[in-house]
Amino acid sequence: MALLPGQASSASWPRFLFLFRGVSGSFRLAELHSAALTLGVDEQQLTFEAASSLAANLKQPEIADAGGDVGPDLLQWVALPSAEVATAVASRCSTVRGAFEVWATARFEPACSLAPAEAAQQADERWRLLADCVHADTAFEARARMLGAMQADSWRVDVINIGANKPRSLAAKVALMETFDSLLGPLPGAVDLKSPAQIVTLIEDCREPDGPRAAARRSDLVQAPHWLGLGRLLTCGAAAHLSRFALSDRSYLGRTTLPPEYSYLMAIQARVLPGHRVLDPFCGTCSTLLSCAALGAITMGVEADARVLHGTIADGAHLRPKGSKALISEPSASGIATNFAEGGLPPPECLLLGDMASFDALLTAASGADKAAANIAFDAIVTDPPYGLMEGLGALYVPLGQRLTSLLRLASRRLKLGGRLVFLLPLPAGADVAQALPDTLPTARCLSLERISRQRLSQRLHRLLVTMVKVAEPTTEAEGLLGSAEGAEAGKGTPTSSLAHQAPWEEWWRTVQAFEDEASSWPVVPPADRSRV
């Protein structure tokens, strides 16, 4: 038992409990880390520590099937300067379910699964033990600190059950709440079940020690909670963003439109803030730019396929899921502009049609006499390069190695110092990250690798979320500096040297091309993912 387990000491920040959603597990701590640093949190004092009884068990969480979730534990202690900062950080994270100021916890060793009635009885007994600790005469000062932030606000009590096959009934929840009557009864605020100012939360972790597969095999047995937490909800995460921009609610979709779960994660990794300029050089239907715009960015995109860039709502109608709730007004309306309008966001400042390898020429032609616009630098480049799996190998196909070479050079040239390049990269399950992104790339002096998160998509295909930071300006063509031939061709078409098969890149190109050739022979990832893989 522990009272006020998150309180600060003279040498450390207070700790807050973050409860994550059971999705995108390999990205959850990366998103939280980036969100915190974006808001100015000191990286040296920012710490994470798994909270549950299962943290030391490598089987938990476990992949339930080929598309299951795996990653750090769902319950994490996060050290942050204050409750206000914890609220701000959590509210930016789409993988966070909620952040809590914890008043008391109890931890028990996981035991054998029980019949439902026995497990419920044991759960109630464990909650009573925690309640006795909270209500003890010696805990008077601790109780005062627990309730200090409640003041006279309206409130209610919620119960969160993690890992149970069946949640508690309403009667069981009420009985559990009454266990803490001595603590909550004296609160001066009114009980408000609909929209209270404060939510007292009881969290019980009933996950199986051996993972969800074991739970599925023993469907008639359940695990009594082995970790209990009592506290105050600070805020929910940014999952509302995902529902706001759900693919099923968009009027315009492409065949490879990136779901908001990933485009938002990428925007957070890029540390996008209001007023930042963000470029997607493979923008497609602008899903990544939609998430960046939601964070306040000024966006710009490049797309080689005119049908996608200038498509109308009617053009993408066959791709909308059955029962779509998209708000469609005019079938002839611009698809991309409509998606932004439905989200209440300004559309991209500029959308360029052409090969991103010719970005400088395209932008010069579009800017005319405006030299400032032609020389614009970006705070972030966020993109999901096409891989040739779902979109096929048509007339616009360029080998992945060439696409990535052009992307890295563009980032070296067009990012501000300290700006970030964030992109997705597929690779076979057995491949080494060092093969996909060796530290010997010609752009390595300009672009420093900040983070790689690896996600399992299927038994044979993984995906990397790569974040690079620009640390130096390019000085050679291999690093991204425009050559004289490219300068002369500005506005006239595709620069030759950007796509030339140059010696420093050859070995890497062959490796990446082998990845794409291997992946192209596999079945396509289930369409539920609807991402560019």
Automatic annotation (TrEMBL):
InterPro entries: DNA_methylase_N6_adenine_CS, SAM-dependent_MTases_sf. GO terms for biological process: methylation. One of its GO terms (molecular function) is nucleic acid binding. GO terms for cellular component: cytoplasm. PROSITE patterns: N6_MTASE. Keywords: Methyltransferase, Transferase. This is Methyltransferase nucleic acid binding protein. It comes from Chrysochromulina tobinii.
